[in-house]
Amino acid sequence: MKVLITGGAGFIGSHLAEHYLAHNDEVFVIDDLSTGSIENIRPLKAHKRFSYFLDSVENRQVTAELVDECDVVFHLAAAVGVRLIVESPVRTIETNVRATELILNLAAKKKKRVLVTSTSEVYGKRTQMPFQEDDDLLMGPSSKGRWSYACSKALDEFLALAYWKEKRVPTTVVRLFNTVGPRQTGRYGMVVPNFVRQALKQEDITVYGDGTQRRCFLHVADAVRALTQLMAKSQAVGEVYNIGNTEEITIQDLAEKVRAMTGSASRIVKIPYKEAYEEGFEDMLRRVPDTSKLHALTGFVPRYTLEDTLKDVISHLRTAAADQATIASDESTLVQEVKGDWQIAAVI
Ligand code: UDP
Predict the structure, then answer these.
(1) What are the φ/ψ torsions at residue 63 (nearest 5 degrees)?
(2) If the chain, 348 residues long, is cut into consecutive pieces of 10 residues, what is the mean pLDDT of each piece?
(3) How many domains is the chain partitioned into structurally?
(4) I need a surface site. Which of 138, 174, 191, 273 has the fewest CB within 10 A?
(5) Residue 122's CATH number
(6) Helix, strand, or coil (residue 4)
(7) 41 CA distance to ligand 1 middle (Å)
(8) Cα dihedral value 158, 164, 170, 173, nearest 10
(9) Atom 14 of ligand 1: nearest residue by CA position
(10) 14-27 burial, b if ≥16 CB within 10 A, otherwise e?
């Protein structure tokens, strides 16, 4: 099978690419490296069944070729991370809506199977847990930047389902809840890599708000398993699925766990939301998925506990820190290579 992964140099996309390569499929990745990284796909580059294009999904010509070439499309390319969303709302809205519209439009020609990744953010301020796929979505006001992400993703969902209903493009929508694991960067505010990096550097661990907010964290390997299982099921077409873990932890407890597991002497400090993000920032107190729909179709249950997941992240970031000096000295070579890759991409 030929698999196209938009955003394939990202955290989840690169794990997904690895999965399909390991199962003898051919993988095509398109990524503009805006939030993804060449490092994530570096080990895959030598693979005969792997091709990648350093380009924006919005480059219609390139994306059209790729959609035509492939049997299935995982559309992961998106502006993600709360910090990025608060800081660059225009980019968030435009990237998320335009890219999805283009992918669906191109997929419609030959009715290609498309999986569109959405987010648990679309549930917004709902307080009844757990969140079910058919629940009402409760957005905040448009004056608060955070909600632009949820809203742009909700529009992606409507589009994907409309393309199925009206044009018979076989689409599936997934709502990813907090997903963590090796290669996730803390650059865009994600809590687990942030805390682990802070703990390893003996810096203050920054808990935003009062730390009583809770989240459920799914290991990226579990997320990849759910994504691939859904792609393989024709019954998933025209449907929306939550993908997440149901084991909850408060952010304060998470900070303590990370500190204990890393053996760090870091202090845990509380930072008001207005300093961490912006004035009037609204956080979600809880966010728990109901995954019974996913389970009923695929039998999916997470294999990794939070401890397993944190262990993997800690070990990944420890190695990355040790490699940092080498990476820095390799930086000029990397720039050269990226330029070379770009030329290859343009020729293909
Ligand atoms: N958070 C935190 N410290 C950080 C980064 C995030 O306390 O350094 C909090 C954030 O305010 C939220 C939770 O951790 O309540 C999860 O944040 P993340 O951005 O990882 O995902 P979200 O669930 O907000 O999409």
Answers:
(1) -65, -40
(2) 98 98 98 94 96 97 98 94 80 92 98 97 95 96 88 96 98 98 88 97 97 98 98 98 98 98 98 89 92 98 98 95 58 40 32
(3) 1
(4) 138
(5) 3.40.50.720
(6) strand
(7) 26
(8) 20
(9) 191
(10) bbbbbbbbeeebbb
Q: Is the dihedral of CA 187, 192, 194, 200 positive or negative?
A: negative
Distance between CA atoms of 310 and 220, rounded to whole angstroms?
11
How high is the pLDDT of residue 68?
98
With a CB cutoff of 8 Å and minimum separation 6, the contacts of 189 are 81, 82, 83, 84
Residue 162 inside a domain? The answer is yes
Predicted local confidence at residue 335, as pLDDT: 38
Backbone angles phi, psi at 213, to 5 degrees: -65, 145
Q: Measure 189 CA to ligand 1 centroid, in angstroms.
A: 7
Check if the beta carbon of residue 174 is closer than 8 Å to that of residue 115. Answer: yes
Range of the domain at 237: 78-180+217-246+283-304
Cα-Cα-Cα-Cα torsion 33, 35, 38, 40, nearest 10 degrees, comes to: -140
**Does 185 reside within a domain?**
no
Counting atoms of ligand 1 from 1, which one is nearest the CA of 211? 7
Provide the sign of the torsion angle of the four alpha carbons 205, 208, 213, 216, taken in this order: negative
Pocket test residue of 125, 212, 215 for ligand 1, highest count of atoms within 8 A of CB: 215
Distance separating alpha carbons of residues 347 and 262, to the nearest angstrom: 46
Site to probe by mutation for ligand 1, drawn from 180, 251, 259, 313 as the one with most ligand atoms within 8 Å of Cβ, is 251
The C-alpha atoms of residue 21 and residue 42 are separated, in whole angstroms, by 14
**What pLDDT score was predicted for residue 346?**
30
Q: Is 273 a catalytic residue?
A: no
In a domain? residue 200 = no
Which residue in the list 52, 149, 163, 241 is annotated as catalytic?
A: 149
**202 inside domain:** no
Rounded distance from Cα 347 to ligand 1 centre (Å): 41
